[in-house]
Design goal:
Elements (H helix, E strand, L loop, with lengths): L6 H4 L13 H10 L4 E5 L5 E6 H18 L6 H4 L13 H10 L4 E5 L5 E6 H14 L24 H10 L4 E6 L2 E7 H22 L3 H6 L22 H9 L5 E6 L2 E7 H7 L1 H4 L26
Helix pairs in contact: 2-3, 2-8, 3-7, 3-8, 6-10, 7-8
InterPro entries: CBS_dom, CBS_dom_sf, Diverse_CBS-Domain
Pfam family, one: CBS
Keywords: CBS domain
Length: 311
């Protein structure tokens, strides 16, 4: 049987962290500058407080966005900030090679299209987790992306939708990317980070206008740059350094989290993201040609996590 890795074997120890007293605009700017989707919040003694995630950022910027509307600052349409040059996958692509591909490109997922460019679904880090669980639990050999892609079409948006509508969709759903279609053809995509970057620009414009020209008390209050600690997710799940790779996979499968802080005695000692888990499990995700199937591990608690197509 394969040796099971635990969190301390592959967790990241050098982390970007924020203080509860960091100003929201500075905190969001740090996430955007470092190209990360969230950061642990710790106090002066490195005691874990919570996580400042992209969703928390959007909530924190909502006051500035509301102030922008009152100030007559127009919100951009999707077509103004969507990405058009996309990495895509085919439903016939080998699932393990596709996981390697999204890891090497440092993206959290990719649209799946047919030979004519028609949109079929999304293959993401979370669906890759399902591959991991199925491979370990059922000893499933390699299969194709079409067996695992997410088919939910409620995530599709229009290029004429405005920033506020898209932000609301992200706040209310677990989606990380929303495709834009022309007919059935994939025309582009908007990620949470695209929306957050646009919201941050608006918040900076609001702050500058209020500083230069003044504003009503209600607008000034809405646009006030608050502290990260007010918006950090203090209920986010954490694990200890000895949590094994299977426990971590189960947490990611059964929650919307993209990262889990590793905490020991209240102190933040590391962090593991979905990407870290997939990279650590790379040997398990790539079937050995000599064996033609993944090595078995004992995963009975994870049986309910298998996708319907694999049950």
């Amino acid at each position: 049987m394969n040796e099971v890795k635990v969190a301390q074997d592959f967790m990241r120890r050098k982390l970007v962290t924020l203080s509860p007293h960091t100003k929201v605009l500075d905190g969001v700017a740090r996430l955007l500058r470092d190209n990360i989707s969230g950061a642990p919040v710790v106090d002066d003694q490195n005691q874990y407080v919570g996580v400042f995630s992209e969703k928390a950022c959007m909530k924190a910027l909502s006051g500035s966005v509301a102030a922008a509307i009152e100030l007559g600052i127009s919100a951009p349409k999707v077509r103004e900030f969507m990405k058009r040059d996309l990495i895509t996958l085919s439903q016939d692509d080998d699932v393990f090679r596709s996981i390697d591909h999204i890891l090497s490109k440092r993206i959290s997922g990719a649209p799946v299209v047919d030979a004519n460019g028609n949109f079929l679904g999304i293959f993401s880090e979370k669906t890759a987790m399902r591959v991991l669980v199925a491979a370990l639990y059922d000893q499933v050999p390699g299969t194709n992306v079409g067996s695992y892609m997410n088919l939910d079409r409620n995530r599709i948006i229009d290029e004429n939708d405005c920033l506020h509508d898209v932000a609301r969709k992200f706040e209310e759903t677990p989606y990380r990317r929303l495709p834009i279609l022309h007919g059935e053809k994939l025309a582009g995509q908007v990620s949470r980070r695209d929306v957050l970057r646009a919201q941050h620009r608006i918040a900076l414009e609001v702050a500058d206008r209020v500083r230069r020209n003044g504003a009503s008390e209600s607008i000034s209050e809405s646009a006030k740059d608050r502290e990260v600690g007010e918006f950090a997710d203090t209920t986010a799940l954490t694990l200890g350094p000895n949590a094994d790779i299977l426990q971590i996979a189960q947490l990611f499968l059964n929650s919307p989290y993209r990262r889990v802080p590793i905490v020991s005695g209240g102190t933040l000692v590391g962090q593991i993201s979905r990407r870290d888990l997939l990279e650590a499990a790379a040997d398990l995700l790539r079937p050995d040609p000599a064996r033609h199937q993944a090595s078995p591990l004992y995963l009975s608690p994870l049986a309910d996590s298998l996708p319907p197509s694999m049950r």
